[in-house]
Amino acid sequence: MMILAYAESWPIRGKFTISRGSKTSAEVIVVECHKNGQKIGWGEAVPYNHYGESIAQSLQQIEKIKDKIQNRLTRAELISLMPQGAARNAIDCALWDLESKEKNMPVWRLAGLPEPKPMITAYTISYKSSIEMGQDAAMHAHRPLLKIKLSKEDDLERIENVHKNAPNSKIIVDANEAWTLEILERLAPKLTDLNVVLIEQPLPADQDNDLIGKAFQVPLCADESCRKIEDLTDLAKKYQYINIKLDKTGGLTHAIDFVKEAQRLNLKIMIGCMVATSLSMAPSMLLGAYADFIDLDGPLLLEKDRENAIYFDHSLMYPSAIWG
Description:
There is one protein chain. The protein is of the alpha/beta class. The chain has two domains: about 1-110, 2-Layer Sandwich (Enolase-like, domain 1), CATH 3.30.390.10; about 120-320, TIM Barrel (Alpha-Beta Barrel), CATH 3.20.20. It contains twelve helices and 14 strands. The strands form three sheets. Strands 5-6-7-8-9-10-11-12 form an eight-stranded parallel beta sheet. Helix 12 (about 280-285) links the parallel strand 11 and strand 12 (about 295). Helix 1 (about 55-65) packs across helix 4 and helix 6 (about 130-140) packs parallel to helix 7 (about 155-165). It is globular. The relative contact order is 0.15.
């Protein structure tokens, strides 16, 4: 077997902005498993600078264990050899896809997961002025679930404008660590009347101990705070949900372990993504049956997607033959 690893850039429609900055393209890495001259397994991941990752570093990580992968490294061995992150995710997903093709069996069945069904994804409105976010909400008012990126003390006006222009949509607000406890305590009581159903990562991950013993009108979801499976016991004291992303868990294999541990701790689940193509979303969709919220709209934010892409009927996404 031969392994190829390379980077790709996928233009974003317009600009994607969160509290930490903006970007106009999705920078991904792809791992391909070739056998007898044919590609039979592949996976995609997004190195995230906020976690100290880069495209170059991720490709170097893959190069270091390339020989082991080509000698049929197992997924369990992969977890012991590499840290969590994008590089391991791309390899892990490629190995799942490889096994699926070799055994002529879908990954969901190989992994003992429920057969994937069509599911509703959130649609993300990136951070802009209150007026602009209201205009974007009006364009997507037909979608049942909107996720809005926030960042400032005056975010209430943004939420109000989104709700005003999409009154029938449920809303997830995501501060990406930009709020303080004071902002959260001030805004939370006002959000249920604005159809907000979830607050994602309001405080910086290193300050979320301030949430212990606190109760809010809207449930909280850990994203940047949710990195290692060993942390879930502590997170259960602060949050009601965790956001599981394969780029954080380092692949589908370890993400399944996250699901099981979250269930043991009575933590509810959101399945999330980075901005990427359908190749990144397809493995995550296999965990959809365990989640109350799905946030896999990455391809909807791109100028174009891959061939055999996931089909989106507005916010309803259908399983695809692109992977697994």
